[in-house]
Structure formats: C-alpha cells, structure tokens
Amino acid sequence: MQLNSNEISDLIKERIARFNVSTEARNEGTIVSVRDGIITINGLADVMQGEMIELPGGRYALALNLEQYSVGAVVMGPYTDLSEGMKVKGTGRILEVPVGEGLLGRVVNTLVSQSMVKAQLSLTN
Predict the structure, then answer these.
(1) N or C: which terminus of the chain has fewer CB atoms within 10 Å of its end residue's CB?
(2) 49 neighbors 63 (Cβ within 8 angstroms)
(3) Could you tell me which residues are beta bridge partners of residue 5?
(4) What is the Cα–Cα distance from 80 to 34, expressed in whole angstroms?
(5) Is domain 27-94 in CATH 2.40.30.20, yes or no?
(6) How far apart are CA 105 and CA 121, in angstroms?
(7) What are the tens digits of pLDDT across the range 10-61?
C-alpha cells in the first residue's frame, strides 16, 4: 500500500484537528529535604515571602527563605511523615489567621484550626 502526499497531508490535518490539549497554570513544587520542621522545595517559582504552602494531609507551611531555585518553609504542624519527592502547592495567600472575641482566653494551634476548638467561635479574618 502506497500513500500519496495528499493522503498524508489530509491524515495529518485530521489528526491535528482532533488533537486536544488542556493546560492549567499551577504553582506546584517538590520537597527536596526535610530537617527539624524546615522543608526545602524546588519548583515554586512564583511563591511570595510569607505565603502559605499547601502540604499533603491538609497541612500548611510558611515560605520564608526565597532563593533562586528553591524555597525554605517552616511546617505548621507535624512534619515527621513528610519526605523527599512529595508534591506541594503554592496557595497565593499570605499567612492569615482568624481573630475575634471568641479567641480570648483560648489555647489554639498556630493556624487556629477548628479541630483544636471545641465550640464554634465567631471569628473574622
């Protein structure tokens, strides 16, 4: 079987027309080291100083050390299960903590997680 140039051209045009690519902008990185609650991340090119970085398991880290090819961040919570190669995401949000009268006299964790608070509190950002 021999194809002529018109058939090849038509076949290529058909495949190009059916080709579907979806792109999504992401600010995603990879943990390259974990030491004493400090993680080093590669791949977070657009992260800001003080930005919250989403970690596996619904935890967060705070970006503090911005270098050309890596980011140093402090983990806000347990870190012993974090390891090299895990994926993390930039949130685009600077550290934010809810405040309000309901917090007076209460002991909460660094991010005022609802799991630490037994009663519903009236808090504002």
Answers:
(1) N
(2) yes
(3) none
(4) 8
(5) yes
(6) 12
(7) 888 998 888 887 666 568 999 999 999 999 999 988 899 999 999 998 899 9
